[in-house]
Amino acid sequence: MKHTIQIECPPEILMGLHLDAHRFGDLIKLQSATALFKEGKLSSGMAARWCGMPRVHFLLQAMQSGANLLENTDDDFARETALL
User: What pLDDT, on the 0 to 100 scale, is given for residue 66?
Assistant: First the structure.
């Protein structure tokens, strides 16, 4: 089941960003998914699926936005090596 969320946006914002409503929605979705991933509230896999992109592409995008993929803790190491 999908949910649609409507956001009011003045036309000046779209014109200023040189985006149409659809591309602006994609930008907001990616920015939101990245922020939720950075806060640890959304996994990279779930964020990537939400944005409709491969996980590796989302992770590259998130890294470019300043996300830390690993905190170098024992828990991070155990989780990542468990996938091998």
Answer: 85
